[in-house]
Design a protein that fits this description.
The protein is an alpha/beta fold. The chain has helices at 18-31, 48-55, 72-82, 102-113, 129-136, 146-157, 172-185, 202-209, 224-233, 251-268, 323-340; strands spanning 5-12, 36-42, 59-64, 90-93, 118-120, 124-127, 161-164, 191-193, 235-250, 273-282, 285-291, 299-302, 307-319, 343-353. The strands form 2 sheets. Strands 1, 2, 3, 4, 5, 6, 7 and 8 form an 8-stranded parallel β-sheet that branches. A 6-stranded antiparallel β-sheet has the order 12-11-10-13-9-14, with helices on both faces. Helix 5 (129-136) packs across helix 7. It is globular, with a radius of gyration of 20 Å. Bound molecules: guanosine-5'-triphosphate (GTP) and magnesium ion (MG). Magnesium ion binds next to helix 1.
């Protein structure tokens, strides 16, 4: 029998740190001499995450157009495509950050229908300290409605392990408080403290992920009406934009300026940001900037350190607002950022919408 592929899925809310985590895990397994494939997922094609991970040198397949659960067959064929050369030893999968019920709709179907091919690693879900803390405290100023907050809660309830990410930024007291909020909400689920940025806590995380056992068994009791309404509240936008100028400009400066302007404009209109990200790509150079809440500092997560005269930008936004409004704000912020560096801004493609109701291909409600 050919060897089984280890399927490692890392879930968590929008902007929690899934892509950063998967890149770090991919490097870890590659250093061990393993072949690694990554699968990204979102509601439309040409994703920031796919481009970012490919630019970092990883082998990436993209499931676009619907989430893993609603597009299960494409998840399987994308994983098969990754196996075309030599079969990967490990597949790292990143589901959409506004998705939940992944145990019943993704892990259980893989276990039941593709048992010979895949071995399921513990399903870990990242808690995003900013929104996660506010939601678990039932803070009335959580930034999202109770229905969107419901998704975040359900995500951690189905985990085999919960990862408190960004501990590089948290005090001991803050991390302790998050741990007790998680313990109260999901008693019995192991909690790890990690930083995808610095690698702190990764020895424990990789030990956990390497465990053998029957994982992905916490099938949720979930109300799909609430889930669908919550997901639809989080407007979705993806724009491809070409920026060109007669003079060189700092690519990193532009990327940061775009997300900072968006954050300010959206916060002024009372729309909570779940994640704003932009990647700039030009002649093999790339840089990524992000903002993960209305009050978090804009960050250059992957600097390009280069000056360019032209760049292809992809701007992706998940914000609790009307997608048409979101599109107006994105257009005006990118245009103003372009004007400030005397550049011409050409919007090539924009998609913005409210995600539709999730209709999973399979759903096994009874665990095993
Ligand atoms: N300080 C700090 N920042 C982090 C850490 N992990 C991720 N980030 C930052 O958080 C932002 C979002 O990270 P991503 O990995 O893109 O998050 P994601 O969960 O994949 O986001 P979506 O795919 O949009 O849902 C980026 O700016 C990262 O650099 C961490 O451990 N510490
Ligand atoms: Mg991501």
């Amino acid at each position: 029998m050919t060897h089984q592929i280890r399927y490692i899925m890392v879930g968590g809310f929008l902007g929690a740190g899934k892509t950063t985590t998967l890149a770090r895990l991919a490097r870890h397994y590659m250093e061990q001499g393993k072949r690694v494939g990554i699968v990204t997922n979102d509601q439309a094609a040409d994703l920031v995450d796919t481009n970012s991970l490919r630019s970092q040198g990883f082998e990436v397949g993209e499931v676009a157009g619907a989430c893993f659960c609603c597009n299960f067959d494409e998840l399987m064929s994308t994983m098969d495509g990754l196996s075309e050369g030599e079969r990967p030893d490990v597949i790292l999968a990143e589901p959409v950050g506004s998705c939940t019920d992944l145990v019943a709709t993704v892990i259980q179907p893989i276990k039941r229908l593709y048992n010979a091919t895949f071995q399921i690693a513990p399903y870990s879900v990242i808690l995003k300290p900013s929104h996660g803390g506010r939601v678990l405290r039932n803070d009335s100023k959580a930034g999202f409605s109770p229905k969107a907050a419901y998704i975040l809660k359900k995500q951690i309830e189905e985990a085999d392990a919960i990862l408190i990410n960004r501990i590089d930024e948290l005090s001991q007291e803050q991390a302790d408080e998050l741990t007790s909020l998680i313990n109260e909400h999901c008693p019995g689920i192991p909690v790890l403290r990690v930083s995808a940025k610095t690698g702190e806590g990764y020895e424990a995380l990789t030990q956990l992920l390497d465990q053998d056992g029957d994982f992905g068994r916490r099938v949720l009791d979930i109300d799909y009406d609430t889930y669908a309404d919550g997901e639809a509240e989080l407007g979705w936008l993806n724009s491809s934009v070409h920026v060109s100028s007669d003079q060189k400009f700092s690519l990193d400066g532009l990327l940061l300026d775009v997300v900072a302007k968006l954050q300010t404009e959206l916060a002024a209109s009372g729309a909570e940001t779940a994640h704003l990200k932009t990647i700039g790509l030009w002649e093999g150079f790339f840089g990524v900037a992000n903002v993960v809440s209305s009050t978090t500092e804009p960050e250059l997560s992957l600097p390009s350190n280069c000056d360019v005269q032209e760049v292809d930008l992809i701007v992706n936004a998940r914000v609790a607002c009307d997608p048409e409004e979101l599109e107006k704000v994105v257009r005006s912020c990118v245009e103003v950022a372009g004007q400030q560096i005397d550049a011409t801004v050409e919007f090539r493609q924009t998609q913005s919408f409210r995600p539709g109701r999730p209709v999973p291909t399979h759903r096994y409600s009874d665990g095993e």
